[in-house]
Amino acid sequence: VPAKTWVKLHYEPVRGLENICKRFTEASQNKQNAFVEGLQYSLDSAVIMTGTMTDHAEPDKINRIGLHFKPWFFKHVESYLSGDYTGVEYIPLRQYYHRHTRSIFWELQDIIPFGNNPVFRWLFGWMVPPKISLLKLTQGETIRRLYEQHHVVQDMLIPMKHLQAAITQFHQEISVYPLWLCPFLLQPGRGMVHPKGQ
Predict the structure, then answer these.
(1) Which of 40, 81, 113, 128 has its CA 20 to 30 A from that of 136?
(2) Residue ranges per structural domain of the chain
(3) Vertex 178 angle, CA 192 and 176, to 5°
(4) Helix, strand, coil proportions of the chain in percent (round to 5)?
C-alpha cells in the first residue's frame, strides 16, 4: 500500500443534524478523500474531517498531534466547533493513524478528568494512555460500578440513508456524546452481514 509522509486534514464544523448527515454523506462519497471522519458533540453540532495523503506540508500548518504535550485529538477537533471556523492541518501519517490512542478516543476523560489539562500533559502526558489492565487492577468497586452503569462503547453499521434517524434514536435513548462517525463500504457478498440494494 503506497503511503505518503503527511495527511492533509480539513476540519469543517457543521450545525444541524440534517446538515451533519448531508455533509458526512457527501464527504464519504467523494472519491478524492482518502480519509473521512465525523465527531459529533451534540445532536446538532459536529466537525466533519476529510483528508488526503501528501508528501509536502506547509510548515506553518504542521500539527504533530502525537507529541505528549499536545491536546487530545477529540478536544483539538472540538476547538474548531467552538471557534466555528474551518481549518487545514498537516499531520504526520503515523500520528494520524494513532490520533485517538493517547486519550483512548474520549474514554480517558472519564478515567482521568484532568488528563487534558496543559500542565498535566506537559508533566505526565508521556505516561498516557495507561494500560487498561493497570486501570482495572487499581479501580475500586464504586468506580467499577459507576463505569458499568454510565459507559457506552458500541459499534453499529448504519446505512447512510438511515443515519439521521439512527442518531436521533441514540440521542433519545442514551444521549452519550461524542459520537464517532466513520463511513464504511460494505461490498455485496455472502455472509451474515451484507447490503441489500442501496
Answers:
(1) 40
(2) 6-100+154-181
(3) 80
(4) 40, 20, 40
Helix axes 17-29, 163-173, angle to 10 degrees: 140
102, 73 contact by CB (below 8 A): yes
Grid cell 487492577 is found at 137
Percent of the chain with pLDDT over 90: 63
Strand pairing report for 45-54 and 6-15? antiparallel
Q: Enumerate the H helices of the chain as residue ranges.
A: 17-29, 73-83, 93-97, 108-111, 118-124, 132-138, 141-149, 163-173
Tell me the per-residue pLDDT of 161-181, one tens digit each, with 9 for 90 and over. 999 999 999 999 988 899 999
Q: What is the pLDDT of residue 110?
A: 79
* C-alpha to C-alpha distance for 141 and 136, rounded to whole angstroms: 10
Which residue is associated with the grid cell 483539538? 76
**∠ at Cα 179 (134, 25), nearest 5°?**
140
CA-based Rg of the chain, rounded to a whole angstrom?
18
What residues pair up with 181 in beta bridges, in sequence order? 38
